[in-house]
Amino acid sequence: MWGTIGIVAIGAWGLSHLKAAYRERAAKAAFPPEGDFVEVDGTRVHYVTRGTGPDVVLIHGMSGNLRDMTFSLMDRLAERYRVTAFDRPGMGYTARTSKAGETLTEQAHLLAKASAKLGLVEPILMGQSYGGSVALAWGVHNPDHIGGLVLTASPSHPWDGGMSLLYRINSHPLLAHIAIPFESAWVSHRYIDKAIAGVFAPQPMPKGYNAHLGAALTIRRSALRANAMHRAGLLAQIQHLVPLYDQLTMPIEIIHGTADQTVPAEIHTTPLAARLPNAHVTLLDGIGHMPHHCSEDAVLKAVDRVHQRK
User: Fold this and answer.
1) Which residues of the chain have pLDDT under 70?
2) Which CATH architecture has domain 2-309?
3) Which of 80, 73, 250, 239 has the alpha carbon at shortest distance from 160?
């Protein structure tokens, strides 16, 4: 009996890989690269640049890609800035640089080198959620080459609690190789749309956002693994960054919704602002985890303030 079960399990696993590969080809066809590529130390980094003027760099959060930024915010900023959005390593179309999971600092170095290679001059960094943590690492390690930070719903301090079961499985050295092909092959579009809508709570998801985002790119096997590894290392990497925040002497704007249950403001923004006298805080009453969509004007004004303070 156990032999039969084993054969069936192996067959299902193999079928899932075939189905996942089919869905990945379909995702790439439906959501091809929006921009161009720059090579950094042998790694192809995908980016989109629009507009003219002072430089702004946009860094997307977890489980996403640069399409999160090109939905609306980028075009509005591009009316007065040269705006560049990057796919982080392993997400969208930027290649992975480490099977162990790229740290915040490694991602920051990669994007900083890409920015320099593209000729960006002291860009203002706007990072959302995990992307804001990457911006913090960039600011700590490359403070002389950026114009300021705009941190939007961004983790900055340690927190209590562990990871969700899905992240624990997908970052596990053995279980990930078993589970991820099944997830990639069989997760429904309805489940994905529901998960995206949940990130916006308590606000509704903007009309057309899920169709633009290209979430199918995120359920590729390599992206699921990369995303989980980023999440698995986040807490320890934040703990390493905290003692270095005194080096952040550039203009900083912090934007956070009071209803953010994913990255609570009182755990992250409140202590960060207390550490940084050069930080200006905007708390958005009743806004959740996606201020760069649900309170877009507040983010635009924050970028403008950093530019004026440079």
Assistant:
1) 1-9
2) 3-Layer(aba) Sandwich (3.40)
3) 239
